[in-house]
Structures
1.
Amino acid sequence: MGIFSTARGVLRAPFLHACHALAFLSRLSIVPCRSEEDVRAAVLWFPPAGLILGLLWCAAACGLFLTLARLSGLPSPFPALLAAWGWLCCSVWLTRGLHWDGMADLGDACGSGAQEERFWQILRDSRMGAFGGMCLFMGLLGQWLCVAAHIRQGHWSALVLAPVWSRAASLWLAGTTSPHGDGLLGRLVCASMTPARLRRSLLWALCPALLLLDGLSWQRLPLLFLGQWLLHRWFAATARRHGGISGDFFGACIESSLLWFLLALL
């Protein structure tokens, strides 16, 4: 009886942390993420949570694509385009648009050219400006077109694994930067990324690249890693220039890394 109790205890903690990660990143609040300690424990489980989200988005897109392709009689590009739109709608709805909000806020702050405290005032402003709107439009359009192209080519594994890659990229950013001031999310995530956890998050980033088994070219992997390194350098340099990182940086990193993953593997 003691062995079974120990086994349940060992398995229960990772399950709870994974559920906390899902609750933090999406609407899937099986076990609510209520405290700062829950967030710290959930951080390393962001990439596995991304895998669950990717599977759900792809299930919706695949069902829509097969239905449209068989029943609607639409010309060949349209089922893939509409299925990609469905994939994007599912991703926005399940994540509550949380990461896109960060991209829009960071776009406004960086586009304004503001420095010091003015930069952070713009970043925290809930109103969206012209630069944020342009970043949002280009990011959504880019993801929609890339997802449609992958659907037409049958690259479903890339669509499943893209959210894993992007969330691992945000942990890499958290492990190599410092939080700004007293910002809660930046402080919690950065403090959670110990050197050991950073190494484990980098392994999560390698998993999507090594699990692309549906005919994607391995020759594209150096391009994928190089582009992600350049993205990381830009986010890290921007954070250093403005005195640290916040939750908006993580959101923008997730969506831009997801877009790059899909684009590099076309």
Note: Residues 43-264 form one domain.
2.
Amino acid sequence: MSAPRSDTRQRIQEVARELFVVKGVQRTSLQDIAARLGISKPALYHHFSSREDLVRSIVQPLIDGGERYVQSCEARPDATAREILEGFFDYSYRNREDLVMVISELSTIADLGLIDSMMAWRERLGLLFFGPDPTLEQAARAVIALGGLQDCCIQFPDAPPEALRTAAVTGALAALGLRP
């Protein structure tokens, strides 16, 4: 008996993630993915019409989740910078494998039109820290704080999560020029 469609789809995505991180999106063919799974290429096409469709299926949930997180912050004008940063860390840490793929394949992800939303998050969260008209210095601090916080989720995969969260949020607050 074959696996249900959703299980096969999920297995394809898992194998694709692994291969994309190791070989890169452009150097990973659908045949490579099918071979690793022990299925035929036509069987893979039953689930994804192209490599781009497969990449989009992996990255879109990351983008949708980030958008929901930013919207939830925007709906809470009383949220502190620490709360926003802790939540952004949690979101980034949960999605660090997909973030690695995005970073390693930035041009491919950008070509699919998937990067603009992710870049806009930093700007929108920065407005929550500094108001509607941040100075260039404030906007730069927000980019450094949020980008650095995401980078910590990727850079230190073996660090204890709570210790990493504390260190990354403290560093991000410092980058914002706010007291930890």
Note: The chain is about 75% helix and 0% strand.
